[in-house]
Please model this.
Amino acid sequence: MTPDDEARERMRALDLLRKAFPDYRIVYGNGRWAAAAAGNPPMVWFADTPGSLCGQLFMAQVRSGGEVGPFRTGRESGSQAAR
Model:
């Protein structure tokens, strides 16, 4: 995988995470993923991979009674989407 491919993959992961968890501020920097939720003090999560951050945010939503946005985009065909 080229550096450009890796950058595109990171941007795609960032976009999907932000769509799935719109209530969180999600960023990537220095090889780490981070998310913050509003609050005083704010809740903050850190992860080495987007998958790990996704799991942490999913569990935070489960525990708080929140929702997770759809991962499906308009570009996907019906055969690619979970039914």
In short: The CA atoms of residues 4 and 10 lie 10 Å apart. The first strand starts at residue 24 and ends at 29. Residues 3-64 form one domain.
